[in-house]
Amino acid sequence: MYCTRKITDDIYWIGGNDRRLARFENIFPIPRGVSYNSYVILDEKTVLLDTVDYSVSRQFIENLEHTLGGRGLDYIVVNHMEPDHCAVIGDILLRYPGAKLIGNAKTFNMIGQFYEDMSYEKVLVAEGDTLSTGKHTLRFVMAPMVHWPETMVTFDETEGILFSADAFGTFGALDGVIFADEVDFDRDWLDDARRYYTNIVGKYGVQVQALLKKVAPLDIKMLAPLHGPVWRKDLDYILDKYNKWSTYEPEDKGVMIAYASMYGNTENMANALACMLAEDGIKNIRVYDVSGTDVSTLIAEAFRVSHIVLASPTYNGGMYPIMESFINDMKALNIQNRTIALMDNGTWAATASRKMAEGLAALKNITILDKTFSVKSTVLKTQIEELKTFKDGIIASMK
Ligand code: FEO
Hints:
alpha/beta, Metallo-beta-lactamase, Chain A
């Protein structure tokens, strides 16, 4: 049975949802699943914009055949060659051998890499090129590194729809809805949208900014990404989030305390700090055990908040390995413009704060507070004043 949604009078969503996949890219947990979006334009010519992951190919092909209603397929626009969107191109060409593939020079290089023996007719496009399909005019805008080098976005000038590839996408399967205004996005989707952006595209803030500036003059009425809902209202809401995330500006003034703890003593130190901060009126405090929290969630939170406290036991003369992994991910994903405070624990030689500071040194525009807090085994009553001073330093840095 087909399962499609109408976007406009002659544009349809024909993608699919995967609720079986445990980890997107085999890394990121997706307990709410994920959608792979694909769109069809029914004009004098018929156009398919991207395909889907192979996991949902059966549904997708049924959706495509139903939507075309016996018509042929003239074009396939390949905005992005990552296999979650290009996996079904070969199958579609077997069914619609006359379809021409539209892509840029890098797209066709990658098609050659993924599909060694596939024969097809190509339409090579470059920045700003347009294609008329009858009533619709499509403009192709290059979006390198949002998220791969070949990525481009397609602007339907007739309808004002930006088919935005991975940009503005999110984890989460679509439960029958297709528009962001059909859900409570801020309550139910924003965390997954942030986790998707920061972990998948977070490294490429400069390139995302370049794309946002390039499309700013366009009269965009809808954003149609390759994952998650389509935006037709409140576009400024998601554009503002993207602007903050891609410039590495915090969304919220708040404190994330990420601790590693083997026996609960460093956890106690983290909780005691959280209580003191809350007692002094600090809002928006979140405490995370790095051992029990997927690093993709830690990264998303590090993008969200202004202040980060890292608390680690000393382990093999360094920091706790899972904390080291979190710091390495912060480096890889280009976290910037944050204030960080460090706490450590060491029964005989506490070195974790120094090691964490060394690990964080490569991050841009990071302020590491001078005052660290260190315990030997557990927080003693004699250290309460010192912990308060540490807390005061964090609060002072938030003003
Ligand atoms: Fe959803 Fe970069 O692929």
